[in-house]
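2024-03-11 09:14:02 DEBUG pipeline.ingest accepted 1 chain
2024-03-11 09:14:02 DEBUG pipeline.ingest length=155
2024-03-11 09:14:03 DEBUG pipeline.predict start
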Amino acid sequence: MTKNECMTDRTTTLTNDDFQLWVFNMDDELDAFKATLPVELAKWLDYSVESLTLLEAWILNRYPTFEDTEKKEEAQVLDWLARYVGETFRKQIGGHWDIDLENKKNVYYGLPVITGFEEKPTPVCPLTLVTASTDRRTGDFISGVLERMKQRLKK
């Protein structure tokens, strides 16, 4: 299991150094992800809200059920998906990547989140958005969350 896959596996003990390396490798990992996608999809992944809808269609096709996301062999793809979704949120609303490695009661313990986009932000966990989209199956779940956040932050 690679350190990237560890970010999607809550049973692995992570360190802050693991997380810093994960963030440091963001661009290379996103390039690797895009290289695995169909060209007609990859060319539209520009960190726009619209790109999330296109990506979600691909997610729903790849994962017919939520349980399909729990397969060990999907860890790398889920990591890439979480990276892309997180970077899209970060570019659209601001903030930065963070991880809680201290409070095991935190719902996002050990998972990368986007935070810092407002004074008292509720962190956004891209991985849980990806997996929730496979359960909701609306096709616009992830982009809808981002749109609502953008509207709320305008006020």
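2024-03-11 09:14:41 DEBUG pipeline.report The chain has a mean pLDDT of 93.
2024-03-11 09:14:41 DEBUG pipeline.predict end
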